[in-house]
Amino acid sequence: MTAVPPPRAFFRPGGFSLHEGESVAEGQRLLSLCRVFARDLLRGVSARLGAASFLLPALGIAVYVIVRSRVAAFAVPPKDQTVFLLDNLTLLFSLNAGWLMLVHAGRVAPLIARDAWFGALLLYFSRPVARTHYLLGRVVSTALVGALLLLLPELLLLAAHLLAFGPQPGGTPLEGWMAVWLWSGAVLGLTLACLIAGAVLAIVSLACGVLVRNPASAPLLFGGCILGSLAVSWVLQAAWGRDSVARSLDLHHALQGLLTLGLAPLSPAPVPAFAAMDAATGVGLWLALALAGWLVLQRFIAHPPLGRGRS
Amino acid sequence: MSSAPLQPGLPVATLRAVSKTFGEVRALHGLDLDVPAGLVGVLGPNGAGKSTLFRLLLGLEVADAGEVQVLGLAMPDAALEVRARLGYMPEDDSLFPGLTGIDQVLHAAQLCGLQRIDAVPRAHQALDLCGLSDARYRPALTYSLGMRQRLRLAMAVVHGPRLLLLDEPTAGLDPDGRAHMLELVKEIAAAGTSVLLSTHVLADVEAVCDEVVLLSRGQLGFVGPMQRFRAGTGGSSYRIRVVGDAPALCEALRRNGLGAELDGGDLIVQMQPQATQLFWQIAADGGYGIARFAPAEEDMSQAFVRHLRLDDPLRRGRTSQPGGAS
């Protein structure tokens, strides 16, 4: 029988007493802060419904995949199965990345700006929370939540493909370590792509909020960047052609470069030169934006506004 | 985080030759201060340096010169350790956005390093203590001003701090709310937490504080017990209870050149200590009985103004110095 520790009464009934309990160790503070911030992101029914909505496209595509594997009339030829898998993963990533950008615009971009607006930064920094820990906590929690929202549906779809077509994409018989190597490579590639996508989206959206320092304007700036990049890309594509670097200037499309590179282990053939250049340009663009965003955040946190309102 | 309560008599914070400047504005200038333990009122006019003092104690600002120690630890090096033992209730209407009352306090407790299993009961008890039991599940932004003030107090004390910094805790409260807030502050202090209460409401300091720190133009105007703060100017003013005809004695004193006036049944007499012989002579000659003879205490506002005047070079007719801001 497990001994149940007696409850500790920290306050006298109706009164105040000093806390004599254990505290979280200094090294675990950042972890604890990330947990608190992640819980903050998923607080409320609408946030949880929003998170669950990332699974819907995966479920839809999974049903489609299973139907095509079971119904002879829609069967995918063995040689096309890998391309079918890659197309589905890319389509799902594209849908969810677009949705995640919208979610970031509405919910993530205002986070730090909102803390500044409501004077919460003073509440954080007057407690044993280092400024860098606050910043890292916000970025890491947002990045991890974003990465999970992208990754879980992809893994679900990958599992559906495994279930439907077995571990032999492309019709090539793969057994033992070869199959394990291929699929674990795909999972690793997907995970890395989602982690990087989550991180760059988190940094850039938070930085947008910090730039305007107004929780109401932050979504407009981040959303404006995404839509602006799309508009610029379309205009330039009209001038330079669809297969030009102009395509990568669309930030939504550019994010998919991560997946193109991440899924390279699963690709039956080397990634075509244009696709590789397109992906590299997109990834480079996002990394440059993330670097600039990080500098903005660093500058902000060095001299944060410690009063209520836009100071 | 848990450490023994502070030793009575030892200062909770020590500042040595501390200066802090914001651009052209000198907020603190060579401040030497031992902040006593207990319930301490921090007074001073606007721009005296009270908020800067609090920010230095919290490690939110770094002194340009001098040394700051809080709870025996050097700031700002030990800022995180100090803040774990310190509670702060800001003057601003600051709250964590989007959270209910209980989540606010729980969040504050976890930020201070409490494990969730400890933080949950303490958060609920802190809200009970502050009289917010019925509103704990409401979004904090729907609270009235008084409730938000009490919520911020709950957030400041939930981790059981050794030192509590309260910046204008009664600002904007109605008389009932103010009385409740001051009762809470007294109860928290009685449990062994030292409290620094910064306010412009002198009556609040008078009601709860044992010690007073007065800042003026970034320098120390006064530090010491409340009685000494309110004591008259070096014994030149006396409160005297007369057995017999007090108005007649008042008249007799005036005729002999002593400043005297009636205050209720008592006489307030202005005289230098060496002139008391003359007073006793007049009282004896008139056959008046004297039941009480003690230095007259000023009310808080008189004492506040007098200490400021002593500290203010302009009012003493000396050359002006650049002022500070808090």
User: What structural category do the secondary elements of chain B indicate?
Assistant: alpha/beta
User: Would you tell me the overall average pLDDT of chain A?
Assistant: 83
Shape of chain B: elongated
User: Ranges of chain A with pLDDT <50 over ≥5 residues?
Assistant: 1-9
Defining key terms:
heterodimer; A: 311 residues; mainly alpha; 11 helices; 69% helix; 0% strand; disordered N terminus; B: 326 residues; alpha/beta; six-stranded mixed β-sheet; four-stranded antiparallel β-sheet; 26% strand; disordered C terminus
Q: What is the topological layout?
A:
The complex is a heterodimer of chains A (311) and B (326).
Chain A: H1 29-41, H2 45-52, H3 55-70, H4 81-108, H5 110-117, H6 120-125, H7 131-165, H8 177-212, H9 218-240, H10 251-262, H11 273-302
Chain B: E1 13-22, E2 25-35, E3 39-43, H1 50-58, E4 65-70, E5 73-75, H2 79-84, E6 86-89, H3 101-111, H4 116-129, H5 145-157, E7 163-167, H6 175-190, E8 194-198, H7 202-208, E9 211-216, E10 219-225, H8 226-230, E11 237-243, H9 246-255, E12 259-263, E13 266-270, H10 276-286, E14 289-295, H11 300-311
Parallel strand pairs in B: 3-8, 3-9, 6-7, 7-8
Antiparallel strand pairs in B: 1-2, 1-4, 4-5, 9-10, 11-13, 11-14, 12-13
